[in-house]
Amino acid sequence: MLRFKNVFTSNNNGESKQFGTFTGVFLPTLLTILGAVMYLRTGWVVGNAGLGGALLIILLANAITICTGLSIASMATNIRVRAGGAFSIIAQSLGLEVSGSISIPFYIAQAIAVAFYIFAFSEGWLRIFPDHPEAVVVFVVFAATITIAAISAKLASKVHFIILFVHIVALSSVFLGTFGIANSEGVTATPELWGEFSAASFWGVFAVFFPGVTGILAGVNLSGNLKNPRRSIPIGVISAIGLTMTIYICLVFWFSSVATSDELVNNLTVMVDKSAFGPAVLAGLLAATFSAAFTSLVGAPRILQAIAEQDIIPSGKSLARVTDAGEPRRALVITGTITFITLIVGLLTGGLNAIAPLMTMFYLITYAALNGVILLERALGLVSFRPSFQVPWYIPLAGLTGCLIVMFLIEPVFSVFAIVLIVLLFVYLSRRDLTNPWGDLRSGLFVTMAEWAAKRVIHMPGSSERAWKPNLLVPVTDTESLLGSYRFIKAVTYPRGSVSVLGLHTPGKHQDVSGISSIVDAFLKDGIFAQSALLEGDDLDQGLLFGLDTLTSAFFHPNALFLTLNRHMDVEILQTKLERAQKNETGAILFAQHPTTSLGREQSINVWIRDQSPEWEVGLRLSRLDLSLLLAFQIAKNWNGHINLITVVAQKEEEQNGLAFLNSLIMLGRMPRGTRAIVHVGEFDEFLQDAPRADLHIFGTDQRISLDFAWKMVDRNRASCIFVQDSGIESALA
To answer: Of the CATH numbers 2.60.40.10, 1.10.580.10, 3.40.630.30, 3.40.50.620, which one belongs to the domain with range 594-734?
Structure first.
């Protein structure tokens, strides 16, 4: 019998698969959501907003987390979720740069959150033992959480069961507590449907409550330790969100029934006072804050380990190491250090509350990115997107917009700061040339955009003179010839042009063009879009003609054929190539390089213009002149050089007409400042001796090319020359 390995659940980083759906996803998510906000702020929300207002706030907050949870569930059934949870999901869709720029702040927020939960625990502890020093309580709790986390994440799951039991006892005590609000005369009062918002506005109350539902990634962060993340993440996240929302809604009805609005606003521990057994609620508060601190301390190192494994941060390979049991001990040390420093700062300054909004921003940005991923996947419509758990497009859209709106409603300044920080991280990571081992959607995204644009362009009327840019087809039979013309091709195409290298070789001579790929990489590194293709055949000249016919039928096709001249080439074959290029509306650039001076100082360009007499008219299209002017402008810009427009007339009376024509070309063609118009009266050959010295000379071609004339110009001018044939679709004056 054949046996197939389950490629969807295998692990590549050596971590042992320890957790199932309940212990790995549902329980951490549940316990993180049922935290300090539930015990200390839910009654305050009801007191300010009333029964109806509180229900609306809870439903709005949970709508965001439900949309995000559904998006996470859908992605988890479409891709192989690896270690790092949200980091893995975003990286496999938007790339390491985007995922890293979002996940690094998210990891730091997770590490700092450990300190916040520890401080919340100490507040509950000090209500029971007010004489205990706060610093001692804080560091004892920190030591306990990091010790348990260091021993094993498996031990963490056992602690979770104890905390769950305490929660159940606490909530049972709450719902068994007193029902009915009695006024001063002992008459039961009716709960307020809509509150007066005495302590804060609607959105201010919403901002206080929302952090209570931002624990939906607690289980997802343990994806590297899940036996079957594809199954566990959807079931665990959605069920935890559904149960916690139900608990919050029940608590809203309970609070509105047991206390007046004033009591709820002014007494943050009203849950303890109104429950059947107050100490059980205090125990629940301590368990909730300890659980949240512990869950963050277990999840944060795994995020860091996943980030470090892709070499996104310095010393990444060291931090990515795990123990034989799959525990990221080194990442835990870094996380514990950040938490320890945060605790010291909090004890000295009491300024932790100022950082809380920033933490919330990073959570919300992460949620927004997760919703954006599923929205993008659906929009692209790629065949690779076929999750077994489908969600309608409006769900991730609602989650994305909801996260962004809530960010700015909670704290606009921190929202801007968080976004700027993430953008800076993205710019930094984009320069790192990171290699994503999983692949992502970016190429598919840009291809889809290009296809959309192509379909739009095909149906648009008019010509493309305004959109012209140099897209060269460069046939190559040996790598050295391409190297020899590299600097010139770069000057012609940088920054918006492109180079399509067609490597031509006979059977068995592949090695002659084997170095083309490295030169194409050099073009790409220099900021020029370049690509290459190899064509094998017995007749290389016929191969070029075939390539011309084929490539010019493509949508993004070359618009100029680049050929390097030599003194011994067959002029008839060259003429055939030029005629085929003309037939395909492709221009031609024939490069005759001087063997000694090459491109000289790369400063000056002479453009030779034929005598236009007696018709010196400047029109939208210039006979055999448009491509020459466009190339002169492009090269001069990249050389930071200057241009001389030169014409030679036979009659003295044509001198002023020629000068006016050249000045019109300079003005209407928007040639660079410093471009000179030069008109010589006399013989062309005689003027060559006195013409301005230039590093490059540009000539238009006749209907038939003359190699004798071409090399005569190279020798007489003691400089490299190009001979240009227009395609008929360029316009230097457009």
So the answer is: 3.40.50.620
Say whether 522 sits in a helix, a strand or coil.
Answer: helix
| Residue matched to tokens 């990073």 | 362
In angstroms and rounded to an integer, the radius of gyration of the C-alpha atoms of the chain is 36
For residue 492, give both structure tokens. 């012609």
Please report where in the chains the tokens 């290029």 appear, as a residue. 581
> What sign does the dihedral 305-309-314-318 (CA atoms) show?
positive
Which helix (H) or strand (E) segment holds residue 500: the answer is: strand 498-505
Residue 28, class by beta-carbon neighbours within 10 Å (0-12 exposed, 13-18 middle, 19+ buried)? buried
* Pair 365, 422: CB distance under 8 Å: yes
582/571 Cα distance (integer angstroms) = 16
| 345-370 as b/e: b if 16+ CB within 10 A | ebbeeeebeebbbbbbbbbbbbbbbb
Q: How many residues does the chain have?
A: 734
Q: Answer for the pair 94, 114: CB distance below 8 angstroms, yes or no.
A: no
> Does residue 727 or residue 354 have the better pLDDT?
727
Q: How many CB atoms lie within 10 A of CB 714?
A: 20
Contacts of 82 (CB under 8 A, 6+ apart): 11, 12, 13, 88, 223, 224, 306, 438
Q: Where in the chain is the domain with CATH 3.40.50.620?
A: 464-592, 594-734
In tens, the pLDDT along 76-123 reads: 777 666 655 666 777 776 677 777 787 888 788 888 888 878 888 887
Q: Please name the fold of domain 21-180+201-430.
A: Amino acid/polyamine transporter I (1.20.1740)
Residue identified by tokens 């309608």 is 392
CATH architecture for residues 464-592: 3-Layer(aba) Sandwich (3.40)
